[in-house]
Write a structure and sequence with these properties.
eight-stranded mixed beta sheet; alpha/beta; globular; Metallo-beta-lactamase, Chain A; 21 strands; 9 helices; seven-stranded mixed beta sheet; 23% helix; 319 residues; 2 domains
């Protein structure tokens, strides 16, 4: 499972960062999922191998513009690029009314169906590859995190047992690996007896804006990766004040450590933080603060950075 960041800035874009959007890609094929869609997300996609035809669903964490203002343009571009297949959109209730009003006022026509699901009323959403569950978070408006849990993990065939039982390699082994029972030497062999699953199902949590990371503790029990906003360091958060309801790097990192999450990716950084280490505040200050509270596998997201969660649950940044 891969994560490809399309925007990592909070509130407004910078010269280096667009506003929030993230693509999640299963292991194989061209399918992908979009979590949040800040303004100009469609422009960001032009710099990636992703196609609107492979987009399986869009998940919006909350109604603030830096997380959803890119939706009308992205949908219009999908129409102009010839998309015909229905597109699920899982989002707070207000998103449907806003999009419908936008399309009506602009006299836009989409040649594909939008299938809306109100996240407030959703138990789970699933397709052939993932099951997605939502957790309500804490912000100035209703906001949610989505946990993506893969539905299948690769089975390994117990070849040693098959050899010991004199089952010859070849088509019979292939059928067992596919989950089919076989008949050998007059005896029915059940596929389940010869398959084992060495790796747990992989889970990734992507949070919206949130000032209480603790709300994700239950969801974290079935996840190896947490992607969470770290809008400020503690000193800047104190200057801004508590009304913004965002998390500091220290708060998220401390929670990830207490929850035993092995991989943490911080994103949604205030435009105050600059890339130049000679200037302050600098993005390195967020990393330093997080490292003081978390000793796991820590990353700071950048636009177009791509990460891979392997079958063993280890996250790495791809070149």
């Amino acid at each position: 499972m891969d994560l490809l960041f399309l925007g990592t800035s909070a509130g407004a874009p910078t010269r280096q960062r667009n506003v929030t959007a993230l693509a999640l890609l299963p292991d194989q094929g061209s399918a992908w999922y979009l979590i949040d869609c800040g303004e100009a997300t469609q422009h960001q996609l032009l710099n990636t191998p992703l196609s609107v035809h492979g987009l399986q669903a869009i998940f919006i964490t909350h109604v603030h513009g830096d997380h959803c203002y890119g939706l009308p343009g992205l949908l219009a571009s999908a129409a102009m690029n010839g998309r015909k297949t229905p597109l699920p959109i899982i989002a707070p209730k207000g998103i449907q009314a806003w999009l419908e009003a936008t399309h009506a006022m602009s006299e836009s026509f989409l040649p594909f169906e939008l299938q809306f699901t109100a996240v407030e009323e959703m138990d789970a959403w699933q397709d052939h590859a993932v099951t997605v569950e939502a957790t309500k978070l804490s912000h100035r408006v209703p906001t949610f995190a989505y946990r993506f849990l893969e539905k299948h993990t690769e089975a390994v065939l117990d070849t040693a047992r098959l050899q010991a039982e004199a089952v010859p390699p070849g088509p019979l082994w292939g059928k067992l690996k596919k989950g089919e029972d076989i008949v050998h030497a007059g005896k029915t062999l059940s596929s389940a007896d010869y398959l084992h699953y060495p790796y747990p199902l992989r889970g990734i949590i992507v949070g919206g804006d949130n000032d209480q990371p603790e709300l994700l503790r239950e969801a974290s029990k079935k996840a190896q990766v947490l992607v969470h906003e770290a809008t400020y360091t503690l000193d800047i958060a104190a200057k801004v004040g508590g009304h913004v309801q965002h998390s500091s790097a220290a708060a998220v990192a401390g929670f990830a450590a207490s929850a035993g999450l092995p991989n943490l990716v911080l994103t949604h950084f205030s435009a105050r933080y600059q890339a130049d280490s000679e200037k302050s505040p600098c993005i390195i200050e967020i990393q330093t603060e997080a490292e003081a509270h978390y000793q796991g596998n820590l990353f700071l997201a950048e636009d177009f950075a791509r990460f891979r969660l392997d079958k063993a649950g280890v996250l790495s940044k791809l070149a």
